[in-house]
Amino acid sequence: MRLTVDGREIEIDPDPEMPLLWALRDLAGITGPKFGCGIAACGACTVLVDGVPVRSCSLPVGGVEGDIVTIEGLADGDTLSAVQQAWLDEQVAQCGYCQAGQIMSATALLDEVSDPTDEDIDNAMGGNLCRCGTYPRIRAAIKRAAAMKLARA
Amino acid sequence: MASIGKIARRTFLIGAAAIAGGVAVGYWYVSRPYDNPLEDDLAEGEATFNPFVKIASDNIVTVIAPRAEMGQGISTTLAAFVAEELGVPLEELTVEHGPTSFAYYNGTMMEESGPFPWFDDSLLASIARDAFSTVGKVLGLQATGGSASTRDGFERMRQAGAAARHMLLAAAADRFDVPAGQLETVGRTVVHKASGKSATFGELAVDAAKMSPPSSVKLKDKADWTLLGKPQKRVDMLAKVTGAPIFGVDVMLPDMLFGTVKMNPVFWQKPASVDLSKAEAVKGVVKIVPLDTTYGHGFGVIAENTWAAFRAADLIEADWGKPDFPADGAAVNEALNAALATDGSRLRDDGDVDVAFADAPADSVLEAEYAVPFLAHICMEPMNATARFKDGKLELWAPNQMPTLVEYLSGAAIGLESANVTAHTTSLGGGFGRREADTTIYAAIMAKEVEGRPVKVIWSREEDVRHDSYRPAAKGRFRARLNQDGLPAALDMRIAAPSVVASVMRRTFPSLSPAGPDGTITQGSHDQPYTIADYRVSGAKADLGVPVGFWRSVGNSFNGFFHEGFMDEIATKGGLDPVEMRRKLMAAHPAAVKVVDKVAEMANWGEPLPAGRGKGFAFTLSFGSWVGEIVQVAETDAGIRVEKVWIAADVGTAIDPGIIEAQLTSGAIFGLSAAMGQEITFANGMVEQSNFHDFDAMRIHQCPEFEVAILENYHRMGGVGEIGTPPAAPALANAIFALTGKRIRALPLSREVSFA
Are residues B639 and B712 both part of a single domain? Predict the structure, then answer.
């Protein structure tokens, strides 16, 4: 089957029941999305399908239609997306393992709500677990990214 | 505290020394430098100056930061040590974990293994610290733990940078025929201003490496530091915001197979019978192999992709056998009670506690029983390792915290000497003390079955939760006798828990048994800076059979709760303010009092709070750092909300305040997560939890605001990575008492209250 991932076409031959996450990681070699739980409970595997954040560990690849964007497709060449740049500026990541998923969820949030409240952030990000406890800096980075996006617009 | 007489009668517990079969080595062996492992693998024109610095002809300057990067920022801090003395901006350095080598031994991790509290500066305590540091060096133990990496690297890595700079300048002085004193550096270039001559480090490297290293180097004074003491940008942050393949699970090798494991959910047992037919029928399965190891028994599934391996593992049917250890919560409790009935080892025994309680009036005595459950680590990156066995050699890629032991144990599992094993340490998606050798041992056995092809073995989250090296369950019985003034005259704490060291030995070196007491059982209770006339802390080993290990802050993780929860009770019974009581009991330790004063001032402790709010205080000295935390909670319609946490920590010397602040916050969230809702329970000898739906951690909507102060009053440097954890649980429990009047003595708190 053919998938569009980060703007390029990939050709893979998976069992249609295989979760999108493993099709991306093992078959297509796209390792940005991470495996954390396999039951859509931690958000480490979050990717965007037509702009909507989905937990790729629990989504059969056979049913996926639309453009897939992973953490590897956010930057434009060497220019980071506003969310990535804010993450860098706020020095958010510790171990960094959950951050691909955090950044994808935050990207989807800011595409939906340009100036999110704390409650918006809580609602959008509650499904993304971080064991290092980077939440205070995640919150700060989302607000910084919102400001950067508004300034760029 | 510990006197010579007591120590002579006591057997030190030295886990690693026992591994070596007792350490008796001459001065030569102790003082012998290890070979520089970088010399084995230099590119054309590349030169190495010491195990921490190499420079290539294209002017790439590589710093080896040989500790596991698990989010604590150690690669940045260690590189900053070199950068400071080498005189090169941090962002111009390439930072790598580097090879596995004895040269990267951690001497500091074991320094506090003797029976001396951190604040004991006596000659005897100093001698013991030197002796234990020597054990780490002699064993060549390359390991990340004990919040020791920054302290361990502080001298060595600054010296490595200074020595390399000295040699580069000497080579340039020869080349330009000028005195070295007239040279300076700009970035990675040596410049002679007067003549306008210059050469890059890369151009000088080969000649410079031939210069003799300076016999002694003068390191910069703290006042002259340009990088240290200031927040740095982490060297791995860009990789982490762009999804770069830096973790163990991201390893990709040509012709690679994928795999997972299904280990016996009943620890240590061999399955009585097994049916692999359904599993083997799964499309994509290559081979299912038995795993019989010191860590446990089970099966490795090798497949063409991870998902096929997961599905097959789920279809393995077996009679897993019966547990030979306490099989459920009631049996665990009974075993802990039995241990509490024994005397145990006394790592603190001031005054005469028995006499103090013998004539105590009943109304002056306070008694309580505390308990904590087993806990899993749940690192975000599930357990994994990649292995390739080819031509009699084993190569490993794994997130791990002890690469020299990983090489030894994984090789031994398939009959290889360490010399034929190479371990590469990737970035760790969380560590917290979990990353042992089980993952690489299993991967090695599986790789040997498909000789020549690498196998990437990733555990499911279910396997991770059910086959951890758990934080021990523990129980304590405490009593205090109060004076008329409300202060404790006598304190007697008896604590029972499994021995972490004994459990680690069982799965790593089962033929050896550690002797003596295990200090981790009372760590956080026996070594606190309180002055109480009659003060005894006893630790009893309870063999619960369950594998236990190092969980962020180890024994402090539960002793902090025991000691500081009970201190809060003492203050309440004595009619004293808990903070004021600490000031009095810690008066002999100015660093402690300053921490208490600082955090109280930050939180405006003592201000009248509106109804529906409460604050709690706790203090723990751990890993050489003095930490006070205050938690504020509020009653809401949805339950108790943790609103704000104030932390003051004296770390002696603060190398990177940005990273320290992140670690203090991280450690506190780790402790709060456990205190609020985590527990691992057993039925029929099997763990009942399996994934984040029944073993979760704090989420962003539960996360309080943080305010952190970093102090530098104490004269020795402390650790950072674990110190935020111990006071978090007691500060929260004490805040809930202040809010509700309910004294909760058993974790998790969610058994008694609900959280918003």
Answer: yes
